[in-house]
Amino acid sequence: MSGSALIDLSPLETRVLGVLVEKQLTTPDYYPLTLNALVAGCNQKSNRNPVMQVSEGEVQATLDALKRQTLVIDSYGASGRVMRYAHNLPKVLNVGQQITALLAALMLRGPQTPGELRTGSDRMYSFADLSSVEAFLEELATRPAGALVVKLPRQPGSREHRWAHLLGGTPQTPADQAPTEQQATALSQVAALKVSLEELRGEVMQLRAQIEQLQQALGLKR
């Protein structure tokens, strides 16, 4: 795989790489990670979207797949007793620490606004200001070797655009996603209410017409 090639990750591959980057930049004393530490990072409930519950076997199989793509390397570390794992993301994508931190934040927590990204990636890399985050995002979106992020359509009621990574393919926007069972039920109820409202309007118009006829018959309306 060349240094500028794009990659297409599964959700678990995305999570594993994101955890490896996060732990390298925030807890370097414990990096590279053991399998147990990596599983714990994947199943972490804070700063994760979506929250996952994966097994050692699933993470090990994912590591094996990432090693075949040269995105992960393994070694026994200084102790020589326990296998540890490190990521190779900057070399594969040919990017620096700032971009690696932004990508990791998107990989771990899903689409975010520039402000959310600056806050969420602060422990991995401290950006000087919001404009620097926006500049890096624009750079990633127009990268000659292939875009690594995309600006999503602004959500109703939101003043800022969110950004998503492209390492797992084109992200779904709310308009692309099939409604959940709860959403489908709500939409059905709304449709039923609209029908009922139209029926009521029809009945009101009929009642008004009948009242006018009665008024005319009684000589109350000329």
Fold and architecture overview:
The protein has 222 residues and is mainly alpha-helical. The strands form two sheets. The chain has a three-stranded antiparallel sheet with strand order 1-3-2. Strands 4-5 form a two-stranded antiparallel ribbon. Helix 1 packs across helix 5 and helix 6 packs across helix 7.
- Helicity range: 40-55%
Strand content: 5-15%
Strand order of the largest sheet: 1-3-2
- Judged by helices, strands and strand pairing, the structural class is mainly alpha
CATH class of the largest domain: Mainly Alpha
List the helices and strands in order.
Answer: HEHHEEHHHHEEH
Number of helices: 8
Could you name the ranges where pLDDT drops below 50 across 5 or more consecutive residues? 1-5, 174-179
Shape: elongated
Q: How many domain units? A: 2
- How many β-strand runs? 5
Mean pLDDT: 86
Q: Could you name the CATH homologous superfamily of the largest domain?
A: Winged helix-like DNA-binding domain superfamily/Winged helix DNA-binding domain
Summarize it.
By secondary structure, this protein is mainly alpha-helical. It has helices at residues 11-26, 35-42, 56-68, 89-93, 97-109, 114-120, 130-141, 181-217, and strands spanning 33-34, 72-75, 84-87, 149-151, 163-165.
Features:
single chain; 222 residues; mainly alpha; Arc Repressor Mutant, subunit A; 2 domains; three-stranded antiparallel sheet; 50% helix; elongated; disordered N terminus
SSE diagram, text form:
Layout: H1 11-26, E1 33-34, H2 35-42, H3 56-68, E2 72-75, E3 84-87, H4 89-93, H5 97-109, H6 114-120, H7 130-141, E4 149-151, E5 163-165, H8 181-217
Antiparallel strand pairs: 1-3, 2-3, 4-5
